Amino acid sequence: MRTSTWAGALAALCISGGALAHHGWSSYDSERTMKLTGVIRASGYENPHGYVDLEAREGKWHVVLAPPSRMESRGLPKSALKEGATVTVEGYPHRTTKDELRAERITAGGKTVELR
To answer: Measured between alpha carbons, how far is 21 from 70 in angstroms, rounded to an integer?
Structure first.
């Protein structure tokens, strides 16, 4: 019984730590907005957040998107993020990872979708 209590407490701590780490948007510089247009070289439509690896004039960027359920409900299907598609993203750069951006909106196929 005592072992299961400790195991439960440890599991709860791990889950809450993961949740805190997941929602740590402070690592992105919200004082600096960037807009990038480029070609998708890879993408993921997965939880907790989708992503695109973008090849832009400014270099190669890993762009963090919204959760798939939000993107789907706002009209951004998985098919819009296929490799080779040209998209424009606007968002905030990571403070320490120089090639990572948290997207606030994305324009794909001529349609702009708010992600936050």
So the answer is: 20
